[in-house]
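Q: Here's a chain of 148 amino acids. Please give me its 3D structure as tokens.
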Amino acid sequence: MNGVLIASFREGVFASVLLPDASVDYKPVIKWKTTAKNAFDPSIVIKRGKYRADSISIEDVLSGSEYQELIELLTHFDKLYIAFEVDAEVQQFPCEIDKLPSLSDNHRFGVDEVKFSFESSYIDKEEAILDIVGMTGYGNSYGELYGY
């Protein structure tokens, strides 16, 4: 898979945008819900409630119409998912928007670079995954939702 696939669900309707030339900066982060020092030995830190809070930044060059399509997808959704390839493995995550791409004057007349970022928070990766690549049919002839 080349690029980035962004998928959204709104009122049961699935929509997606493929950015084939986008570059991804993926930073996985492990966080804890609670951290406390041991009362008897402060050098021991007790951590509970492990979860992931990954940061995903995307850069791409888009035309005005591609920019409008992306903004429409990113501003009207109930659930948002992102898929991209890291080390020859497709990564798929539920995500929330951290920063929307800004509109420049160059989008009105041609193409321009856009930057935007997501944050993906989840406890278990297996529970977080939704096969959006299979649903859209990207990379094969037909996806699970072909014809719907």
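Q: Can you summarize the key feature?
A: The chain has four helices and nine strands.
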